[in-house]
Write a structure and sequence with these properties.
- With 198 residues, the chain is an alpha/beta fold.
- It has six helices and seven strands.
- The chain has one domain: Rossmann fold, CATH 3.40.50.150.
- It has a seven-stranded mixed beta sheet with strand order 3-2-1-4-5-7-6.
Length: 198
């Protein structure tokens, strides 16, 4: 089953599984966006729009997702936001270089199956000095995590990779520097990471 097929199937009940456990970490991550101004911000992997209630008004947002079924759930949440939606792949973003002031990549880097391409593309469309906010589950360098690794072959086919080491992916995505890296859920498996493009 492809990623698009999987998330088309998940779309009707995705919120019931993900919303409550992710609310606090989403809100805290998005509080790091500038609260004022008229900036262009990409929501990479917008999904059903669970980030939208926590976004500051006044900016211009573009939400991209591989799955039209997920995007249909996002639109009712826009509530005063300037938002346009695009069907597309975060591993090959259909935007010009340095198009966005900031990029938000919540629960997408490990999902796409290619974290390196996802980070590289986020960096490519980000303006120099802009921030990339990443929120996802990552193993730490050298962490064995035998259960997660054992479940990964099945999990990566159904929904998400469980074996991504963020530092390994970042090393192959030049131009991004970590500003902060905080554990937020599941004993540090989920991390909230802020990066800047040099």
């Amino acid at each position: 089953m492809s990623l698009k097929q999987t998330y088309t199937f998940f779309a009707p009940f995705y919120d019931a599984l993900i919303d409550r456990p992710s609310r606090r970490m989403r809100r805290e991550s998005l509080a790091r966006l500038p609260q004022e101004g008229e900036l262009d911000i990409l929501l990479a992997g917008i999904g059903t729009g669970l980030d939208l209630p926590y976004l500051p008004l006044g900016h211009r947002y573009v939400g991209i997702d591989l799955t039209p079924a997920m995007l249909r759930h996002a639109f009712p949440r826009q509530d005063g936001l300037w938002l346009s939606a695009v069907v597309g792949d975060c591993r090959a973003l259909p935007f010009a270089d340095a198009r966005f002031d900031h990029v938000v990549a919540h629960l997408i880097v490990a999902v796409t199956g290619d974290p390196v391409a996802t980070l590289r593309e986020s960096a490519r469309v980000l303006k120099p000095g802009g921030n990339l906010l990443v929120l996802d589950k990552f193993l730490h360098p050298g962490q064995t995590a035998p259960l997660r690794r054992a479940l990964n072959p099945l999990s990566r086919r159904l929904a998400t990779r469980l074996d991504v080491v963020f530092e390994d992916a970042l090393a192959q995505a030049p131009g991004l520097t970590v500003i902060s890296d905080q554990p937020v859920l599941a004993h540090g498996w989920f991390r909230s990471i802020k990066l800047v493009k040099s």
